[in-house]
């Protein structure tokens, strides 16, 4: 379905981004991998993606640094001649009550989880519009729709990216470019494992009990969403069936936001 097209997935060295990179490569897209990690691990990810018969490149742009984002988008366009799919996925978390929230962590969460998407979109959109085809997929969160305590920066950034998604969708509504957000609930990735470990330590639980407590509090299915499921949704949003899906915030959250 995506043969000959190029997808840039930010934060694709781990978790959800890696699941999306795999799903898009399986559809035939060349993939630009981004994110932190050891060179050997990243080379392994590229080899795995290339097994689908696609080309890959890695760019290590720090998504909190606009000039590096600009360089990555330009490098992708120059290597593949085009950038058709942009998945804004890179993200971090910091958990603390607002009156104890370190200002530098606030700035980092907003920069990586929200402003990076603005910069990548503004760089990539002109060529997508010229080609009259493009897909922009923002990985928001159920925290783009509802809040939880101690996550002020994350919830603000994720609500922000849902708003940004709607604006971009309206500004591209008469073109072949679409923009949508995916809003996952709990997905068992390193980002969430840190929260499970913190809970296990604070409540003196073993890892399994901490995991069950985390799910039981918010996610009615009592089961994690998987990176593969989110990858499949991203691939669907790239399909012709999704041509008129514009400006949505699609929750995949085991029923979290239905409560
Ligand atoms: P993860 O920690 O497994 O992966 C994060 C990725 O982002 C990694 O590749 C990392 O290297 C990259 N990254 C972090 N900071 C970066 C920076 N400054 N520059 C470039 N890359 C950077 O996390 P994940 O759970 O896969 O999260 C991916 C996205 O999904 C995030 O936006 C997160 O908010 C969102 N999300 C996660 C969950 C969940 O339950 N795990 C739920 C909803 C939304």
Fold blueprint:
Layout: E1 6-9, H1 15-26, E2 30-34, H2 39-50, E3 56-59, H3 66-80, E4 85-88, H4 103-131, E5 134-139, H5 152-171, E6 177-184, H6 190-203, H7 207-218, H8 227-237, E7 249-252
Parallel strand pairs: 1-2, 1-4, 2-3, 4-5, 5-6, 6-7
Helix pairs in contact: 1-2, 1-8, 3-4, 4-5, 6-7
Nicotinamide-adenine-dinucleotide binds at residues 11, 13-17, 34-36, 62-64, 89-92, 112-113, 139, 141, 184, 186-187, 189-192.
Q: Would you give an account of this structure?
A:
With 259 residues, this protein is α/β, with parallel strands linked by helices. It folds into two domains: 6-185 and 226-251, Rossmann fold (3-Layer(aba) Sandwich), CATH 3.40.50; 186-224, no CATH class. The chain is built from eight helices and seven strands. The protein has a seven-stranded parallel beta sheet, with helices on both faces. Helix 5 (152-171) links the parallel strand 5 (134-139) and strand 6 (177-184). Helix 1 packs across helix 8 (227-237), helix 3 runs parallel beside helix 4 and helix 6 (190-203) crosses helix 7. The chain is globular and about 55 Å long. The model has no long low-confidence stretch (mean pLDDT 98). Nicotinamide-adenine-dinucleotide (NAD) binds at residues 11, 13-17, 34-36, 62-64, 89-92, 112-113, 139, 141, 184, 186-187, 189-192.
CATH architecture of the largest domain: 3-Layer(aba) Sandwich
Main β-sheet description: 7 strands, parallel
Strand content: 5-15%
Order of helices and strands: EHEHEHEHEHEHHHE
Tell me the radius of gyration: 18 Å
Q: What is the top-level CATH class of the largest domain? A: Alpha Beta
What shape does the CA trace take? globular
Going across the major beta sheet, what is the strand order?
Answer: 3-2-1-4-5-6-7
Q: What structural category do the secondary elements indicate?
A: alpha/beta
Find the CATH topology of the largest domain. Rossmann fold
Bound molecules: nicotinamide-adenine-dinucleotide
Q: Helical proportion?
A: 40-55%
Would you tell me the overall average pLDDT? 98
